[in-house]
Amino acid sequence: xxxxxxxxxxxxxxxxxxxxxxxxxxxxxxxxxxxxxxxxxxxxxxxxxxxxxxxxxxxxxxxxxxxxxxxxxxxxxxxxxxxxxxxxxxxxxxxxxxxxxxxxxxxxxxxxxxxxxxxxxxxxxxxxxxxxxxxxxxxxxxxxxxxxxxxxxxxxxxxxxxxxxxxxxxxxxxxxxxxxxxxxxxxxxxxxxxxxxxxxxxx
Length: 203
Known about the structure:
Layout: H1 2-13, H2 19-51, E1 58-62, H3 63-74, E2 80-85, E3 93-97, H4 98-115, E4 122-131, E5 134-141, H5 148-151, H6 168-179, E6 183-188, E7 194-201
Parallel strand pairs: 2-4
Antiparallel strand pairs: 1-3, 4-5, 5-7, 6-7
């Protein structure tokens, strides 16, 4: 931002530049500043959301319904097939904040959608399993995958693999899950998609 303003100031004092050229530079600088301000606003909002998570209101949450809802939410995504495999499980309860659980699933599926190139036929699968006292949700995509360097920092609040935003989403997701006593991990290779494993303690 400082550089843009300095460039505009220099142009203003350069009296040899025609008015038309100055107006063009003014418009370009103004547009750049607007974009930078919007980016800073987005960063501030995301960090605020991370720092000021709503107070957790734990209760019994039925996650089969939650998974059906998130599947329905994304089923009309263009050029992407999304599937849900419940493995015969009709109901499964965990203790958590129901709104935060929805946020976890929506964020992970949204990330999967965004990881798939527009030129590729997308496939996202959501699978639910039960092992002893754990509910295991597996969300897999055929997107661009996660490189070795990215893997080390994926859940850091300031890290993102995207071109916009600050990657707060996965940090919040991990915080929500671990607060319930659960866990999240992933498997991925660059250009070979990603698979996230979410574990919650069942009732």
